[in-house]
Design a protein that fits this description.
Structural class: alpha/beta
CATH topology: TIM Barrel
Shape: globular
Number of strands: 14
Strand order of the largest sheet: 1-2-3-4-5-7-11-12
CATH architecture: Alpha-Beta Barrel
Oligomer: single chain
Largest sheet: 8 strands, parallel, barrel
């Protein structure tokens, strides 16, 4: 027995990485709009360098991205040709409430997404919508300090009410926050957090996280009231942490590293702060400001399913002398000598996906949904303009096989799989276009040049075959070694 008959195969994107049109349709400025390409991107993303508006000295990749704002019909038609059952996308908060503080939503923004959802439904593609995918109105960042301020909870819920009400008959599956644990690793990207001199950064991050957790619970409550058929999920940047050796100290360190990320989902899925998290906050001298009803809100409004991204596993050691970490990954991790790595230093571990799925399902006993997985690589068209991305096919083949084993052999309840960047888009971490994930090539370069022409890669027809066979046919005619450095 393989995947369920109604398994939701598809792909995933984010508004700030593909949509563009950042000034069209009365859209407001968001945090990612001021995230530049180049050496300043990481300091800004970390909340260490203040950049609250765009200047003439930087290039901002999100402004045009791949201009899906004006190409979505063409793109969705290509998704339909592959046989997508599901398309995961995000709504740009500033398209609906340009400053985040309006009392009436922007009709042009609502109409854009309504038309986009109708285009999906025309082809039988189920939208899976991320409400907040690294997206905060810059007005709220400047005026209130973003999620460090409790006021954002009410403003987020107002935003949710507008989209739940408008799209209650078009969208069934919702995710409250993308990779909610990213607030600890890239605070400005994840939550619009900028740190002033003298800030207790850990306390700011965890206080902001508490506000997001309460907002997520209130959104879940509201969603179920507006349409009881809605399915609301949380979303984790996942990947188990291995111990470097079987030394008990290393094993315990790996447990501690995993808990840093599980903490968020523990609250969203179980409805309360776990004991280890309370002790950790106590050790750090962090006292969260909570309102009287917060515990009740969290307890009574847990999510319906657990979604997550998976790109690689991680490795840790308790030995301070061991410090050789991988390159290019937001999550610092030791190099695993048993694994190959992508061109950006992301360690390739298909079995790690099965391990992660089992860990999450054992822990929460709720349905899982893999909403991001894929290989970022440089794709070079040949003399005929074709892209034979067998390395991507091999990566995906091995991961889907591991996913299938988790379902068939381990009994994990999995609803669907939307691979990341089904069409080439701007990289969230680096701002590059050359770090490509898609089945569809977009003619766009790191410097913003290009025609935006769409073309199919070899992986396009391979994934079409996978979907048509419901994951039974994973074969590729050409065996190939995975891309590695």
């Amino acid at each position: 027995m393989g995947f369920r008959k109604d398994f939701l195969w598809g792909g995933a994107t984010a508004a700030n990485q593909c949509e563009g049109g950042y000034k069209e349709g009365k859209r407001g400025l968001s945090n990612i709009d001021v995230l530049p390409f180049g050496k300043d991107r990481f300091p800004v993303g970390m909340g260490k360098m203040k950049m609250f508006e765009c200047d003439e000295n930087h290039y901002y990749p999100s402004h045009e991205a791949i201009d899906m704002y004006n190409h979505y019909k063409e793109d969705i038609a290509l998704f339909a040709e592959m046989g997508f059952k599901c398309y995961r996308l995000s709504i740009a908060w500033t398209r609906i409430f340009p400053t985040g503080e309006e009392t009436t939503p922007n009709e042009e923004g609502l109409k854009f997404y309504e038309d986009l959802f109708d285009e999906c439904l025309k082809y039988g593609i189920e939208p899976l919508v991320t409400i907040c995918h690294f997206d905060v109105p810059m007005n709220l960042v400047e005026k209130y300090g973003s999620w460090r301020n409790r006021k954002l909870v009410d403003l987020y819920v107002r935003y949710c009410e507008a989209i739940f009400t408008r799209f209650k008959d078009k969208v069934k599956y919702w995710l409250t926050f993308n990779e909610i644990n990213m607030i600890l690793h890239l605070p400005f990207v994840g939550a619009g957090l900028y740190f002033e001199e003298g800030d207790n950064e850990e306390e700011v991050k965890y206080q902001a996280a508490h506000h997001q957790l309460v907002a997520s619970a209130l959104a879940t409550k509201l969603a179920h009231e507006i349409n009881p058929e809605f399915k609301i999920g949380c979303m984790l940047a996942a990947g188990n942490t291995y111990a470097n050796t079987c030394a008990p100290e290393d094993v315990f360190k790996s447990i501690q590293k995993d808990r840093e990320n599980y903490f968020f989902i523990d609250v969203q899925s179980r409805g309360y702060y776990p004991a280890y998290a309370l002790k950790e906050l106590e050790r750090k001298g962090i006292s969260l400001k909570m309102e009287q009803e917060d515990e009740k809100i969290l307890r009574e409004n847990t999510v319906d399913f657990i979604s997550f991204s998976y790109y690689s596993s991680r490795l840790t050691s308790a030995d301070p002398e061991i410090s050789a970490t991988t390159e290019g990954n937001v999550f610092a991790t030791l190099k695993n000598p048993y694994l190959k790595a992508s061109e950006w230093g992301w360690q390739i571990d298909p079995l790690g996906l099965r391990i992660t799925m089992n860990s999450l399902y054992d822990r929460y006993q709720k349905p899982l949904f893999i909403v991001e997985n894929g290989l970022g690589a440089v794709d070079t068209p040949d003399e005929n303009g074709e892209i034979n991305d067998d390395y991507r096919i091999e990566y995906l083949r091995q991961h889907i096989k591991a996913m299938k084993d988790a379902v068939e052999l381990d009994g994990v309840d999995l609803w669907g799989y939307t691979s990341w960047g089904c069409i080439d888009l701007v990289s969230a971490s680096t701002g590059e276009m050359k770090k490509r994930y898609g089945y569809i090539y977009v003619d766009k370069n790191n410097d913003g040049s290009g025609t935006l022409k769409r073309s199919k890669k070899k992986s396009f027809n391979w994934y079409k075959q996978v979907i048509a066979s419901n994951g039974e046919n994973l074969e590729n005619k050409q065996e190939v070694e995975l891309v590695c450095n």
